[in-house]
Amino acid sequence: MPPALRINPYCAGAGTRPPLLAGRGRQLAQIDYLAGQFESRRGAESIAWYGLRGMGKTVLLREVLDRLRDRGWLVGYHEVRRDAGIGGSIAAILVQAHAALGRGKLSSALAWLRDQLGGASVSADLGEVTVRLGLGSSRTRPLPEDALDGLLIRLGEAAAAAAVGAVFLLDELQLMDRHDLSALLHAAEAAKDLPLAFVGAGLPDLPGQLAAAGTYAERLFYDRVDWLAEADVIEALIVPAHEFGVTYSDAALDLLVAGVRAYPYFLQLYAEETWKAAGTPSDRPGRVIEARDVEAALDAVERRLEEGMYRIRLEKASPSEQDYLRAMATLGEGRVSSGDVTRLLGKSHQQASSQRDRLIAKGLVYAPAHNALEFTVPGFGGYLRRHFEIAAPES
Ligand SMILES: Nc1ncnc2c1ncn2[C@@H]1O[C@H](COP(=O)(O)OP(=O)(O)OP(=O)(O)O)[C@@H](O)[C@H]1O
Ligand SMILES: [Mg+2]
Fold first, then answer.
1. What distance in Å separates the CA atoms of residue 164 and residue 170, rounded to the nearest whole number?
2. Tens-digit pLDDT profile for the chain (395 aa)?
3. Helix orientation angle between 264-277 and 250-260, rounded to the nearest 10 degrees
C-alpha cells in the first residue's frame, strides 16, 4: 500500500541519488565482474568511467560504494580536488573504509597494515580512525612512487587475506595532476595480482589525461557514461511513480522524453517539476499524470535551468573567459574547432589557449579531440546565445 505522504520521489541535483538508477547495467556488470574476479582470487583491471557533466558519474560511483560495502569490501569514495595531492585522496578513503568496516572482518588486517606501514614515508593510525600518509602534496615535492606502491600492495594483501577486495572510488579524477595520476597508474599496476583496483570517474577528456600520464593507462578498462536510451528514460520516470500508484499518460511520456533529451540531469529535473505541477500526487493512487501537467511544469524547468545551472556556470567564468564561451556559442552547439574560436576572438594563439585551459580547468568546456572543444553541459550554447543575444548558428 503506498504511504499517504506528500513527497516527491524525483530529485535533480549534483550527486543526488535518483529513485531509480536507469540504464547503467553495463557499468554495474563491470563491477560485478571485478567483484567475482577478486573474490575468486583472480585479477581485474581498474576502471575509468568518463562522461559529460550531469551524466550520472557520481551517483554511479555511490551505487558502487553501497554494493561493495554490502559485500564487506574495503571501499571508499573520494572527490579529487585540484592540487590536493594523492595522499589526501587515499587517506580519506582509508578513513571511510575503516569507519564503515568498524569491527568487521578487515579491522585486524588493517591493524596489521598499521604495523607494517610505520616508518619514514607512510604512517597510518587506524586505531583512532585517522590516517596520515606522508606522501606529501605533489606541488611541494615529488610523490615518492614507491611509497604509494608499497601502501597499495599491502592493502591489497590485507584484502586478499580477508578474501575481499579493496576499491578506491575516485570522482573528478580529471582534476588529479599528471604526476599523481602517473603514481596511481604505477601503483595499480604494481598491485595487479592482488584484489585491489580503483574506479575513477571524470569528464570526457579523462582517457586522454590518463594516456598522457603514463604507459600503464592502456591497462585500464574504459567506458563512457553516456546518454540514456529512451526505454531507460521511461523506466526511470514510471517506476518511482508506480510505487505511489501513479501512472503517466502516453502523451505525457512523449513530452517528457522529448524534453529530457536522454540526459540524466534533465530527467530528474523534468520529473521533479512535473510531479509538483501535478499537485504532488503521492497520496493519490490512481492519479494519471497528463500532458497538461508536463506543460504546466515547463516554466519551472526553464527557470531552474537558467538560474540554477547555466547562469551559475557562466558566473564561474571571468570576463575574458566569458568572451571565449561567447565565441564558442557563436560557432555552434556541438563540437567547435579551437582554431576557429581563436580566429573569431582575434587573439593570439597563446592568449586564447590560456583562456581555453582555464575554462577546461573549471569544467565548463572540454576537449573531445585535438583542437576540438565542446561545452560540458547540454543546452549551454543555446543559453549563451540567448544571454548574449547572438543569432543561432547556421548548422
Ligand atoms: N542513471 C540515472 N538514472 C536516473 N537519474 C540519474 C541517473 N544518473 C544520474 N541521474 C540524475 O542526474 C543528476 C546528475 O547526476 P550526477 O551528479 O551523478 O552527475 P555527474 O556525471 O556526476 O555530474 P558532474 O560531472 O557535474 O559531477 C542527478 O540528479 C541524478 O539523480
Ligand atoms: Mg559528479
1. 19
2. 555 678 999 999 999 999 999 999 999 999 999 999 999 999 999 999 999 999 999 999 999 999 999 988 889 999 998 877 787 787 778 777 766 555 444 555 455 445 544 432 333 444 433 444 444 333 444 445 567 787 788 788 878 887 889 999 999 999 998 988 998 999 999 999 999 999 999 998 899 999 999 889 999 999 999 999 999 999 999 999 999 999 999 999 999 999 999 999 999 999 999 999 999 999 999 999 999 999 999 999 999 999 888 999 999 999 999 999 999 999 988 899 999 999 999 999 999 999 999 999 888 998 888 899 999 888 899 999 999 998 877 65
3. 140
186 lines ligand 1 (CB under 6 A): no
Give the integer Cα–Cα distance in Å for 297 and 277. Answer: 5
- Choose one of 27, 169, 268 to mutate for the ligand 1 pocket test, by most ligand atoms within 8 angstroms of C-beta: 268
How far does residue 384's CA lie from ligand 1's centre (Å)? 23
The dihedral of CA 30, 33, 34, 35: what is its sign?
positive
CB 264 less than 6 A from any atom of ligand 1 = yes
Point out the ligand nearest to the CA of residue 11: 1
DSSP strand pairing (123-125 vs 130-132): antiparallel
Of all protein residues, whose CA lies closest to atom 23 belonging to ligand 1?
54
Give the ligand whose atoms come closest to the C-alpha of residue 203: 1
- Contact assessment for residue 87 and residue 136, using Cβ atoms and an 8 Å cutoff: yes
Q: Which atom of ligand 1 is nearest to the CA of 59?
A: 18
